[in-house]
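Task card 7
Instruction: Convert sequence to structure tokens.
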Amino acid sequence: MRRPLAALVCSLLLLLLFLLPFTGGGAPAAASTGRTPPAVPRLTDDLGRVLTLRGWNVEDKTHRGEQALSAITERHFRDLRAQGFGFARLLVFWDDLEPVRGRYSERYLDRIERILDWARKHRVQVVIDAHQDVFGPAFGHRGIPAWATRTDGLPFTPHPDDWFAEYFEPAVQRAFTHLYEDADLRRAQARMWRVLAERFGGHPAVLGYDLVNEPMGELREGEDLATAARRIERDQLTPMYNRLADAVRSVDDDSRLFVEPTPIVGEGVPTGLGRIHDPKVVYAPHFYNAAMEAGADYDPAAGWIESYEAAVTEYPRRYGVPVVVGEWGPLNTSLPNMGRFYRDALASMGRYGSGWAGYVWCYGGGYCALDESGRFRVNKERTVAPYAPAVAGAVREERWDAERGAYRLAYEARGPHPTELSLPPAERGWRVTVTGGVRIGDRVFARPGARVEVRVNRR
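Output:
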């Protein structure tokens, strides 16, 4: 989700208008049931280790056709790993993969494979994201091909200063309805995913697939935005995800399936998604606030993060699936309260999530994490910290104190496999102490049942 700083006024007003009855400026009060709500489960690997994914989105939205994906280089993955990140969400576009109906671009598939090879070389796990912005090229963006765009002749007016408002144009909304409901488009979308999963399911860098980025839909007359979002999620997204899961599983049994709600969850509205009938589902909401995307500074007193956390944890608690935030990070990180935002946001995602991918790993201005010389832009360096990508046991405590430069991991070891550590660059290096186990490089080995404590401190 990328929005210009100058506008989004239309989108913001729409959200405020429709959501005012549903949000109270703070975390919703939990119903008193006398029972502790179930914990959000953690993501685990095939060895049973508890996983933490930390990384960034990697994209090329500029180049198409012959030049598609050419802006992504090996440097992206080398620099990610050098900063301690081991995760990337790679944006791919259906309109580049299948520009003509039924004809898939081998050049595009080869370029995706080259990127995955770089990721493997630098030990970065990748989620392949079927990305769309405002549906696709029929409306001047990327995503679903023009040949798969049906509008019934409804109007579309561009909003060059506020592209998110284009989601509310009648033609765009109707195009989503046809994608969800037309039998031939359903089959085409499933075939597209079979092509991707068959080609890349066995690639060692591939962790999983994000089945569609920020899905939207069509509002009905008299419907407010929150009610529409829950209906779309329940009646259209849930069956779509189950169809696409079946398509992927016909060629790939192992990779994880990342499913997203509509972006309205960012305003503290719990999703209406139903159960996705697959054992390897990951819930992958995005973490954006409309006011901040429109250029406002973070307001800790507004309670937005608390409201978001309450909303976003309802689905994974109910269905017992882990959470990985697929996109997050405001455009203007130099505002006075942005340091506080990063502290609060990282703490929040650490309470319920198995990881996150910031937006976006590139070199320049806008949302880029790094400037042209490769240095972190203001406050984005706060995403860098020691952590454990894989813990071979039951985690009792994991904590990072950024002010003191101190990390602590405590767990009860299970199984013969090692716990893995990620230590980013530090001016004077890190001092690592391990009790209850033995450290060899970036791995910690311990006997099953041992109480292990890992402490990492700046020298």
